Amino acid sequence: AQSVTQPDIHITVSEGASLELRCNYSYGATPYLFWYVQSPGQGLQLLLKYFSGDTLVQGIKGFEAEFKRSQSSFNLRKPSVHWSDAAEYFCAVVQTGGYQKVTFGIGTKLQVIP
Amino acid sequence: EAGVTQFPSHSVIEKGQTVTLRCDPISGHDNLYWYRRVMGKEIKFLLHFVKESKQDESGMPNNRFLAERTGGTYSTLKVQPAELEDSGVYFCASSPGLVAYFGPGTRLTVT
User: Fold this and answer.
1) Is the pLDDT of residue B61 over 60?
2) CA–CA distance from B11 to each of A72, A73, B6, B14, B71 (Å)?
3) Fewest CB atoms within 10 A around its CB: which of B14, B48, B81, B91?
């Protein structure tokens, strides 16, 4: 069964510092890959997605993610974190081929300190 | 364009009572999904509608959960009777294809 691993449950960074959130997936074929964010009191918002092609994907709010097939990873990055980035981040995959359900990682809570 | 909406945003009920959650998808999206997040756990798939038909209900925990999608528009998820372990946040999502757009969720607390 496919699975998504986010090894960091909580991360604290200083405002202005760089950020990298890790995500690894386990699946036979490369799935479609996503990052979602849930800000306090909000729903899940799509940050970015990877289907194929360029392995460096740009998203909203200054985020990017890099797909590395050899490592089965899809890590999320941001060069300079803002206080408003404090939220919970979810890596997710969808099996290729047809309309399929989303499988989520457990989520990483990001705290931003001044 | 309006996003996915869910009602209510919060619900607190006693064990044994019935609760109905509602989801209004983005207009024109044939695919509608329900997910649930129990505290401290992953967001888990419950079921998938394509229009009014259930495509996949493999994630439904048991027969106390009943989902419907009237006329391929809005959907309801009924829990009857509710148990303590049903507490969590229930998310609805709709999709025209591969990208799912999520609602804000309904936080259900069973006491």
Assistant:
1) yes
2) 39, 37, 12, 10, 26
3) B14
Closest CA of chain A from B14, distance in Å: 24
B79-110 pLDDT, tens digit each: 999 999 999 999 999 998 888 999 999 999 99
Burial B20-50 (b: 16+ CB within 10 A, else e): ebebbbbeebbbbbbbbbeeeebbbbbbbbe
Which residue among A44, A49, A103 places its CB closest to the CB of B91?
Answer: A44
Q: Which residues of B touch A105 (CB under 8 A)?
A: 42
**Tens of pLDDT, residues A69-88:** 999 999 999 999 999 999 99
**Chains A–B, number of C-beta pairs less than 8 Å apart:** 54
Task: Write down the residue that tokens 């200083």 correspond to.
Answer: A14
**How confident is the model at residue A5, as a pLDDT?**
96
B6 strand-pairing partners: B23
Kind of pairing between the strands at B10-13 and B106-110: parallel
**A chain contacts of residue B45, beta-carbon cutoff 8 Å:** 101-103
Bridge partners of B48?
B33, B56
Report the SS3 class of residue A31. coil
At residue B35, φ and ψ (nearest 5 deg) are: -135, 160
